[in-house]
Amino acid sequence: MTDHLHTAPLRFTLSLLLTPLLLLTSPRLLLAQGGPPPPSVRVVEAKMTLLAPSLELPGTVVSRNDAKLSAEVPGQLMFVAEVGTVVEQGEVVARIDDTYLTLQSREYTGIVARESSRRGFLEKEASRLRTLAAENVAARNQLDQTESELQAAISELEVAGARLDQIKVQLSKTRIRAPFPGIVTERLQNPGEQTSAGVEVVRLVQPDDLEVVARAPLASLNYVAEGTELKVRTDYAQGVGVVRTLVPFSDGRSHLFEIRVTVPASPWRVGESVRLAVPSAEPIEVLAVPRDALVLRREGSSIYRVLDDDTAERITVTTGLGAGGMIQITGGIDVGDRVIIRGAERLRPGQKVSVLTDDPAGDGARTAETR
């Protein structure tokens, strides 16, 4: 009983303190004071738009320069570039032991020098004997023999020179060089291993010369051509590519043709799976709004239109043809109607809104009432 008597004044005091706070936060009181500001929304005008029906096809990003570089001479690998190494065109990515070829080069360099000296001697001897041959029969016979030896020396020099050139070519091929700038993505052999002509050593990929490869229905050939711009997207990125080439051949079962679309290096990566939008019919003009305008509910699709008095009106619509970020709508919307594309999620029909417009002074978005 005593405890109850002591706590009663405390409860009364707390109720006196809380009552003003409750009154201040009462919705009715807030409304009496003007209520919260109207929610801000962003709008666009519904307009007639030329849309082309399209198919979204799976594609893969590939590099136009993706090569497995092979050895051209046998030998032991002395160096192979590490995976991830960035190289310029002409830079060495692997080196084969050249000891034996270097010795052969020295040998044939000596043979060429010897045959060249012999040819020089025989040319001088033949010149001397030609002078004597006019007066001396013996000299004439000796001239014939010298000229024969000179021709043989010239032939031997040509053979030795050709053999030396071959060895020099083989020596140059002990350095496997990058045919284009790129990144070493795979080591197919390692230093210390024996390699042979034709054996793949490294894989080199150029990461900034990319294209999307996809297979499209033959019917799409009527609506796409070289130079056509197509939209490319993934779940996290989107962009535009240009058709580089079409391969209008297919087998009897798939009825598909190959399409190659050039895309920029960013944001795409080699080996990435993407979706490619390929036209499937002639474009038609329809009343369209951005897809962001749609409010999807269990009972169907709708959009909010801003009336002249800046109230939001909910309109049930039927969607039709879609292309990119635009979609066809029918049902209660006219060309020029202001359609909400941002901020419609929590609106109620008849609610006042404040339309966001871009600040022409460059200070960002500002709130303004549309009259």
Report a brief summary of the structure.
With 371 residues, the chain is α+β, with helices and mostly antiparallel strands. It contains four helices and 25 strands.
Tell me about this structure.
This protein is an alpha+beta fold. Among the domains are: 40-52 and 284-368, Beta Barrel (conserved putative lor/sdh protein from methanococcus maripaludis s2 fold), CATH 2.40.420.20; 54-65 and 208-279, Elongation Factor Tu (Ef-tu), domain 3; 98-173, Helix Hairpins (Orthogonal Bundle), CATH 1.10.287. It is 27% helix and 38% strand. The chain is built from four helices and 25 strands. The protein has helices at residues 2-24, 27-32, 99-133, 137-172; strands at 40-45, 47-51, 54-63, 66-70, 75-80, 86-87, 92-96, 175-177, 182-187, 194-195, 200-205, 210-217, 229-233, 238-247, 256-263, 273-279, 284-290, 295-297, 300-306, 312-316, 318-323, 326-330, 338-342, 354-358, 365-368. Strands 1, 18, 19, 20, 23, 24 and 25 form a seven-stranded mixed sheet that branches. Strands 3-12-15-14-13-16 form a six-stranded antiparallel beta barrel. Strands 2-17-22-21 form a four-stranded antiparallel sheet, with no helix packed on it. Strand 21 (318-323) and strand 22 form a beta hairpin. The model is unreliable at 1-8, 16-32 and 359-371 (pLDDT under 50).
